[in-house]
Amino acid sequence: MNSDRFENLRLELRRGCLVLAVLAQLRTERYGYVLRKALLDQGMDIDENTLYPLLRRLETQGLLVSQWREQDKRNKRFYRVSADGEVILKQLLDEWNAINSSLNRVIAESDAVVHGV
Amino acid sequence: MDLIERYLRAVKPLLPKAQQDDILAELSEDLRSQIEDRAADLGRELDEDEVAAIIKKRGLPIRVASAYLPPQYLIGPLWFPLYRFILKLVMLWVQLPVMLWIVAPTLYFTSPDPKSALLGLVSRLPAIAITTFGIITFIFVCLERFQFGALKTSLDDWDPRSLPPLLPVTAQIQPALRSVAISELVSAIGVSVAWVYFVRFHPSVNFDIIQMSLAPVWRNNFWPILLLFMSGIPVGCIGLFRPLSERLHSSLRLAIHAGSLIFMAAVFKAGTWIEITSTKRSAVQVAEILKGYNLGIRIAFVVVTIIVLAQIVQEVRRIASFKTPRPWAANGLAAL
């Protein structure tokens, strides 16, 4: 029961972060499989059934551009951040940093109250 | 690789048509990359079980495809509470009472074969309910699909100052339930119409072997009883349009219940409520049938009296509870 609740909250917490991670990683052009591996190497494990529809959605919103190209004798779809995507990414990163700072202050303050520091 | 082809073929029809080939090409490429990587790790080709494991991890075709589909609901969270309310209101508090109190009695008393008519009605009830459900659902689906934008604008345009005022702390009142008020209103109208229809226009019914008519006691008390039935209309209106006037609401209901008891006592004294005549049965047989009917009505009187007494007790308790303070009143939440 507790693990279910944790899992739901964890997914909710991660949902917004995934967009940020994907946009940041696609400043360098990558195709889906390599992108997923790159994110995994950085500790960000994304299910394929989440990643590929997300890539498609971001492309529809104009934040990514994609191109089918042959590599190693197979056609692969390469994605990279568009000019609009770069602008949004910068705004999202600013927002992320602001949230992170606020959260750290809130947690530090509540820790101080709980532990009487 | 045969497994991959079979998997792709299963996913394809579930995807949005315009994107099928594109999504499948990417899915196929991803699966092949995974298989290649795993084979490179193991230093050999994967067997069928290992390929199946990779595909299984990707998920059922329906799960893969559903991630690419637009949100799939007929009625969204914005409309759903209203949809549920209207559905319950129409089916439970309008359709059911109309069927029970108007359609069924009308069929019973006007049809040449009442039993068949009632059975026919019962057999049609599921179809009527499904049709009502379908129509209401269709209206809300249209609202969801075509009116969302306009509604969103109007939802943003509201004024907190238009919210109903809080009651003074001394008036601890539970607002009347809208559904109860509507049912009171519909019942009062339905029963009043039925009363006028049967007593004024169809006071007797011919059942082939017997002719049944209402005893004079009903006709003599036609107007007082009609007034009593119609008194439910203002009560329903108060509950619907002035839900916070619960003290007035309960007092009126109490007065109506008390009035009902007085009239029932007066009508009960008559002892005969139905008259029966017949040219096809002997006087003794007619007397027996009449006795049976009047006994049934006598039992109904007793049951209704018990119900009305219970309602009187309930209303008195409600009125008494209006002055009982609540523990959270001190936090300024008295009227919530």
Radius of gyration of chain B (CA) equals 33 Å
Question: Which regions of chain B contain 5 or more consecutive residues with pLDDT less than 50?
Answer: none
Oligomeric organization of the protein chains: heterodimer
* Helical residues, percent of chain A: 55-70%
Q: Describe the strand arrangement of the main beta sheet of chain B, using strand numbers.
A: 1-2-3
Helical fraction of chain B: 55-70%
| Share of β-strand residues of chain A | 15-25%
- The counted number of beta strands of chain A is 3
* Secondary structure tally: strands of chain B: 3
The parts of chain A where pLDDT drops under 50 for at least 5 residues are none
Helix and strand layout, with pairings?
The complex is a heterodimer of chains A (117) and B (336).
Chain A: H1 2-25, E1 30-31, H2 32-41, H3 48-60, E2 64-71, E3 74-81, H4 83-115
Antiparallel strand pairs in A: 1-3, 2-3
Chain B: H1 2-11, H2 20-42, H3 48-58, H4 61-66, H5 80-110, H6 114-146, H7 148-156, H8 178-201, E1 204-206, E2 211-214, H9 216-220, H10 222-230, H11 232-241, H12 246-269, E3 274-277, H13 283-321
Antiparallel strand pairs in B: 1-2, 2-3
Helix pairs in contact in B: 1-2, 5-6, 5-8, 8-10, 8-11, 11-12, 12-13
